[in-house]
Every structure is written in C-alpha cells, then in structure tokens.
Amino acid sequence: MLGILFALTSSFVWGAADFSGGFATRRSNQFQVLALSALSGIVILAVCALVWRETFPAWRSLIWAMLAGLAGAVGLAALYRALSIGNAASVAPTAAVIGAALPVAFGIFVEGLPSSERLAGFALAFLGIWLVSRSTTTESLVSRQGFWLACLAGIGFGGFFILIAQVEPGKILTPLIATRAVEFCIALLLIRVNRLPLPSLTSNPVALLAGVLDVGGNVFYLLAKQFIRLDVAAVLSSMYPATTILLASIVYRERVSRNQGIGVLVCLSAIALIMI
User: Fold this and answer.
1) Which of 24, 34, 89, 261 has its CA 20 to 30 A from that of 80?
2) What is the mean pLDDT of residues 79-93?
3) What gap in Å lies between CA 138 and CA 136, rounded to an integer?
4) Which DSSP string do the residues of 116-146 spell out, in sequence order?
5) Cα 244 to Cα 33: distance, rounded to the nearest angstrom
6) Using an 8 Å Cβ cutoff, are 221 and 51 in contact?
7) Model confidence at 93: pLDDT above 80
8) pLDDT > 70 fraction of the chain, expressed in percent and rounded
C-alpha cells in the first residue's frame, strides 16, 4: 500500500510539474525552460543529498541513471518537436500511452504476469490516460512525421521509467543528480543548436519551480519502486495528465471536455483494480 501511495503522489507531483512547465513556456522557449528546470532540479537534489548524507551509488547505478536522463531528454525533445508540427490531440496521448505500456511489457517479461485484476487495471489505465491526455482541438490527424516523433517521445518516457528503476535499492537522490545533469547538458546542446540565448536564473522562476516539482515526482517514483512492481509503479505514476488537466481548469478556468472527465473516472477505476 505504501508503494502505491508513493506512485500516486509521484503522478500528482509530475502533473503539477507539467503544468508549471507549460506555464513557463509561455514566457521562454521550451529548451530554455528545460535547462532552467534541470538546473533547479540538480541544486535541490544536491542540497537534499547533503542533508541526508546520501552517498553516490556504484558506477553501474550511475550509468543506469545517466541513461535514464538521456532517455527522458530525448523523450521531451521529441514531444516538443511533435507538438510543433502535429496535432496535440493525437501526439500527447500517443506518447503517454506508449510511455506507460513499455514498463508494463518489461515488468511482465522480468517479473511475470501480475494478477488478472491488475491486468484489467492496466488496460483501464491506458484508456484513461489516452482520454485525459486528448485535447479538445478538432485539427486534422497528426502527420506521419509527428506520429513517429510521438512514438519516440513515448519510448523515451518509457525508457526513463525502466532505466531509472535499475539503480541499486536505497539510493534515491544521488542517482537523480546524474540523471538531471545529463538532461541539463542536452538542454544546453539544444539551446546551442537552435541559436537561443542562455536563460538567466531570474528570467523564468516558474521554470525553476517546474524543475523542483519534476525531481519530486522522480523521488516518489523511485520510492514506489522500492515497494511494488515496476509495471504497477510506472502505470500509476503515468496518470499525471489528470493532475495537469485539473490544475488548468482551476488556474486558467479551462473547460474539461467530456472525454477528459470520463478519462479521470476511468483512471480512478483503474487505481481501484490495481490496488486489489
């Protein structure tokens, strides 16, 4: 039960991070936001690691963490590109569902089939994530390039879930420092390639907040993985779009579509089945 609580907390915090990141991109380029959020994440993780005196893990775990950072950064970059050329109504749910499905497939391969109730919960979760992630736009279907980029984004997110879960048990903060360091370097590379100015620390405070929230979600996900199966932790943590939609409806007074409302209810039903 504690692991499920951690996973659901991760979902909530990640949803708040996505909302903050989206808000920050209204003021700065998405790659500048990525750099600032990665930097603030490194700082908060380093401070917490010093306070709790957590030492760095073995090199093998650090390599897994750095690979997770690479996968996450590739996923974000692909998602941003896909959203810029395709239809968000198709791109976002495609990436979200693939990102949740890959850890399930990996978990079944490594740990065996879960109970039939949890399998049914996973199926409902995929449907709920798809419905919640869909926007209310009525644009044409996503282009072929946009579709493949959305798939790449999902693979990146799913890869992050799988790779970061391979770090040695008991190490939470220090592996994530390596993860965020890789993401920060990739963000700087993207800024350089796109000939953007380096953002100042005071240029976008919300981006810094997004980074703190994002690492909070990472921490709760790793805590969840200490107690429950990878596939359960990943699916429950992947329900973050519900929180993003809720915050958008409160802050921006955006209308929640009928499909999104149904998606939230489906996600709640999936949680009930997964907890059995």
Assistant:
1) 261
2) 65
3) 7
4) HHHHHHHHHHHHHHHHHH--S--PPPPPHHH
5) 17
6) no
7) no
8) 92
13-22, 38-47, 58-67, 240-249: least confident range: 240-249
3-class DSSP state of 240: helix
User: Token pair for residue 79?
Assistant: 């998602």
* Closest of 221, 94, 217, 227 to residue 163, by C-alpha: 221
The set of residues, in sequence order, having a beta carbon less than 8 Å from that of 240 and lying 6+ positions away, is 10, 11, 12, 14, 15, 17, 18, 217
Q: What is the mean pLDDT of residues 248-266?
A: 80
Decide if pLDDT at 18 tops 60.
yes
Evaluate whether 131 touches 259 at the Cβ level (below 8 Å): yes
Question: At residue 221, does pLDDT exceed 60?
Answer: yes
Lookup: tokens for 91: 């791109």
Assign 202 to helix, strand or coil.
Answer: coil
As a whole number of angstroms, the distance between CA 174 and CA 42 comes to 10
d(CA 14, CA 177): 17
Higher-confidence position of 101 and 256: 101
What is the spatial distance between Cα 34 and Cα 24, in angstroms, rounded to a whole number? 10
What is residue 226's DSSP assignment? T
What gap in Å lies between CA 130 and CA 224, rounded to an integer?
A: 23
Counted residue by residue, the chain has a size of: 276
- Domain boundaries along the sequence of the chain: 2-274
Tokens 């199926």 map to which residue?
A: 123
Where is 229: in which H helix or E strand? none
Which pair of tokens denotes residue 171?
């190490």
Among residues 246, 236, 256, the alpha carbon closest in space to that of 8 is found at 236
